[in-house]
Amino acid sequence: MSIFNKIKKFIKDEDEDEEDIFKKPTTPNKTPNKQNINEFEKNIFINGIYGTKSALAFDNVLNLCAIGFNDGSFKIFGKHGYEIPLKAHTKSMIKKIYFIINSPFIIIVTDSSIEKWDYDRMKLNNILLYKTRITSICQSNGLKHLFFSTEDSMIQTYNIHNNFLSSYQLYDYEHNGQTSQQQQQQQQQQQQQQQQQQQQPEFDVKCNESIALPSCLKVNPTNANQLLVGYNNGLILIFNLESKKIEKRIESFIKCGYCTSICWSRNGSKFVAGFLNGEIHLIKYSIQNSTSILIYKSQSQQTQQQQQQQQQQQQQQQQQQQYYPIDQLEILYTNNKKLILFKGVNNIDNIKSLILIKGDNFKNVNHLSSVQVFSNLLSYYPITTLPYYNNNGFVESLLLIESNGANRLLELKIDQKTLFFSNPISCDEINLKSFSCNNNNNNNNNNKVKLMRSYQCDSKTIDLIYQLFESNNNNNNKKSSINGGPETLTLNKLPGVSSLPFQQLMITVHYDNTIQFWNSSDPKNILYLGTLNINNNNNNNNNNNNSATTIEIITISFSVSNLLLTISTSNSELLIYHISDFSKRIDTLIYNNNNNNNNNSNNNNNNNNNNNNNNNNNNNNNNNNTVEQQKDGIKEDKELPNAVFDVFKLMGKIIMGNGENITSITLNPYKSSYSTRLLIGTDLGNVYHYIVSIVNNKEVGGDGIPTIPSSQVVYTLAVFSFGNCSTTATPGIINASPSSSSNNIAVTTPSTVIGDSTIPAITSISLCFYPIHNSDIDSSIVYLGTSDANIMVLDLQTMKIISSFKLSNSGVPVGSLLFTNKRGDPIQFLFFGSINHDDAESIENLNDISTLSKIFNNDLLNSTTTTGINNNNGGEEFKSMIEEISLIVSTIKEISIYSVSFGSNKIIQHKRLNKHDGSNKYFIDGLVHLSTQSDGKPVLISLDASTSSIELYNTINLDKLKSNSLLPIIRLPTFSSSSSLNNNNNNNIIKFTVTPSYSNGYLYIDNNNNNNNNNNNNNNNNSLLYCISNNGGHQLNQYPTLFVDNIPMPPLPKGKSKFTSFFSSKPSQQTTESNLDRIFSEDGNKIPTPSHSQQIAGISDLLNKAKEALEKRGDQLKELELKTSEMEMSSRAFSQMAKQLSKK
Question: Are 560 and 461 in contact (CB under 8 A)?
């Protein structure tokens, strides 16, 4: 090959590399494979903080926070946890983030690029791309110019307002001499050998020792013409930007090595410098003579030095070199004191910590002390009162990011007088969104998700639940400073979903017995509403007799129509909460569901403290005496229950007998917003039917005026039993307990053995809202699913099983039971807008349980009384000419659809129409979710772990409509053996739920138990929540607008008086800023845009400068040549004139 062909090939390869850098910097010379592209990836989102964090910033005018990650993504957070996710053009680690104050722009710095983004429009505004690494950067609030340096040791200036890159550069020509290529190669080889032997520090020290690279920059706050520069060899320079000269050279710190961080004092007379060896020096700046004081030395370094003195010289050479860098060095001010904060190492374990240096006099080292403020620190950012570079006001708090994998964003409030920091305040509205944050570091499993449920509700419910979070953080010291965004940005009105008549509510149950509530209407921005802790929310007058034992939540159910939340626990209790936005005096009910009690059970169901009949009668007498006292006069406050101010109010408990636990709950409103039908199934195969109602003792006189003051109204829960049924009895001898006309219940004990593992539990209960009787109000039959794949039909009138069948895949629990009509539309019963949160049904005497009958429909009471016992047919016959409906049944191994037909003599026939057998499949949680597509048509959604895909089915015939693969973003674990399917630990790895409308799904994966690695660099998280939109182009996920225009800036700090400035040698702020504008206003290089980006390299700059210098020199030579010729011509003319004059 000739030399010309080699040059041609070299130039061709170089051009190809240049083109690839701008198109796909992370994967040059590669074209993506179409088979590896998944179009559904754009519908998968991760909310909150996840992955590895790398940068933090805060806008103290708009109150917004920005966090950068290692994968090149960054997010801007506002109030309520609203977020805007973006990704850098170079897709490399985010090193620095700078907000351009009071504007919608943000500066993102990576290893090789400086990008300016418009986060309001979510577009890249401008970009600077470099072949070499950016070694240092500095941007101060209020200044238009950003200073940065690259590996060519050139310091450049970029105007962040008009995107102007100045050709004016700073360079230390005295220290950076030219070296031969052989010397550079030898030095690089030596450095590579040292890097293999030494531990890699946080700061990059692999640069060429012959070329001093700027490692940190800082602008003087009182004189913007002065730029303080620290170098990687310990050299410190002060450049004068106006005179283009070096004002001061400080070489006394070269022995300290790498200068990692520097910072000016507020008056610009001093600065502090931190170094790689763990030392911090305070330098009093003077052009003539500068003095320095060592104010801090890393304790780890001191310990290491003491150990090295005791060892021999040979062992010292073999030891690895240790680094204790000082990073993020800041001088901050309070009302009357000064403090120094930095990120360093304060213990021998080499853990990054936030360290505070404080003292009365920084000139005297003996008066200084260092305190570790926070350990396991990744990054911090001070929040100050003013956004100006020459005066940032006083520090109010610090934003922190932990480095221990908890992914938590914290805030520390500071006491201005004592300089004490408060306990870390967790920004829960941001931290909890990704579900990867563990609030309790002692037990990583505490915050993991145990259950997930989704409901659709009105916006008023969202507001009420959010008050729970607000009430727990009513103290201003506990509120996060991240509250930026427009006033219209509320929790119940998401951007892009304002036309919806309802919102989506997601409830998650965690292993620490906390229940979290979310507004999940928008998968791109799920919003944290609040947390209910059942261990702390038991009302003031409730005695917890089981406090010594640890309880666990088994299952929950929520009625969105009347705001009733039921929670079953492992101590055989059912907790009943009601959501209310005003305080109430609550007489908490304890209802004992003891199968051994008989005719007197209902008379005793309103007693609160004891379970035996004698004590209940005593309580009734006491309550009657209280009523008599009310007639004579006003009752004293001490005789009333304490007022409950919590949004979630514990109204009562139902305690199960024989130690059985509730495994399934179904709620639906019954004729009133205060009354609810409650069906519960237990692990012993029993089903109980109740109607619960919220009542009070409010009385209204004949004139319509209440006879009891509102402050003395007492609320309680009334429980009315309609019988129970055992599904474990022998067929044909099914025990039932219908209600009699006197409301007394005869209960038969199930013929089962407590604790027998062969007893099938009730795993699913579903009401069929379909009128099959003439007297039906809302529902009269219930379908039950058991843990051994049995489906049973329960008649609510007689509480008897009237039909049953078994699924083909036996031994697996039934996950869900859904009903549709022949058109595929769901059969459900919901109503909104008729809820009065501030009242309840009034009963004159709370102990007169017979008055509850007026709340419930008399038809139901009469039908259960007359037909349940006296009718030999066992209940009311079905209506004639009833249309068939469809039943959809799902387990972890199959999804089937059945046609349900109703015949005479109360015969119900089930015929299977279609089935998807999961012989090689595993449907997550055994659930299939009924939702709505963007076109309004219903659809069934399931999650198949074997293919890591979301399956969509037709609700009419169960035909598969679409399969959306989650790969390569999400890879789900698969279970091949039947034993693993029944393993609860494996079943807890994944939780999946779908909102009832618009098909938004939420997939929770516990990566701690997942052996399959995901390909999204999130393997370090213990758990993660993926938000999935199945609507394709019709997505409701519109990002909010966090930028608010025309926010008034805080007043400028007072400058020097005219008399002081007259005698001061330092220029004023306005003078220095105008000088900077004048200095950097010459015609420079335009900023390349992403479409026509321009590479900027140190070598090309030097060549261009040399070329320009040669051209200028040539122009000057031409000018000199012209001038000499002109002088020659003028001299000849002069000589001729002289000769003519001499002749005369």
Answer: yes
Amino acid identity for residue 691 in this structure: I
From CA 765, how far away is CA 783, in angstroms rounded? 6
- Over the chain, what is the mean pLDDT? 76
* Tokens 């006001």 found at: 393
Burial 249-288 (b: 16+ CB within 10 A, else e): ebeebeebbbbbbbbbbbebebbbbbbbbbbbbbbebeee
CB–CB of 665/490 below 8 Å?
A: no
Residue (of 740, 747, 421, 772) closest to 598 by Cα position: 747
- Bridge-based pairing state of the strands 841-842 and 686-696: parallel
Q: What is the dihedral of CA 834, 840, 843, 849, to 10 degrees?
A: 90
Contacts of 1078 (CB under 8 A, 6+ apart): none
CA 170, 172, 173, 176: dihedral to nearest 10 degrees? -130
- Give the pair of three-digit tokens for residue 490: 């509320």
What pTM, to 2 d.p., does this model score?
A: 0.81
Q: What angle do CA 815, 818, 823 make, to 5 degrees?
A: 150
User: What is the CB neighbour count within 10 angstroms for residue 89?
Assistant: 18
pLDDT tens readout for residues 984-1035: 444 457 889 998 877 788 999 886 654 444 444 444 456 889 999 876 544 5
Q: What residues does 784 pair with on adjacent strands?
A: 765, 792
Alpha helices in 950-1068 (DSSP H): 978-981, 984-987, 1058-1063
Q: Phi and psi (nearest 5°) for 459?
A: -70, -25
Spatial neighbors of 189 by CB under 8 A, at least 6 apart, are: none
Count of H helices and E strands in the chain?
Answer: 13, 61
Tokens describing residue 798: 């007689």
Long-range CB contacts for residues 512-516, cutoff 8 Å, separation at least 24? 512/440, 512/443, 512/446, 512/447, 513/551, 513/552, 513/553, 514/447, 515/553, 515/556, 515/567, 516/432
Indicate the pairing of strand 648-656 with strand 589-593. Answer: parallel
pLDDT, one tens digit per residue, over 633-682 is 333 444 789 888 888 999 999 999 888 999 999 998 877 778 889 999 99
Strand 527-533: give its sheet, edge to edge. Answer: 449-457, 503-510, 514-519, 527-533
Name the phi and psi angles at 462, rounded to 5: -60, -45
Tens digit of pLDDT for each residue in 446-485? 678 999 999 988 888 888 888 877 776 665 557 889 999 9
How confident is the model over 938-952, as a mean pLDDT? 89
Q: What is the pLDDT of residues 279-323, one digit of tens each?
A: 999 999 887 777 889 999 886 554 455 555 555 544 544 444 566
- The C-alpha atoms of residue 545 and residue 528 are separated, in whole angstroms, by 32
Is there a contact between 681 and 687 (Cβ–Cβ < 8 Å)? yes
Percent of the chain, pLDDT > 70? 68
Residues 6+ apart with CB under 8 A from 1121: none
pLDDT given for residue 874 in this prediction = 58
DSSP 290: -
d(CA 202, CA 192): 16
pLDDT digits (tens, 9 = 90+) for 475-526: 555 788 999 999 888 887 766 655 566 788 999 999 888 999 999 988 889 9
519 to each of 504, 795, 931, how far by Cα in Å? 6, 36, 17
The Cα 367–Cα 951 span in angstroms is: 69
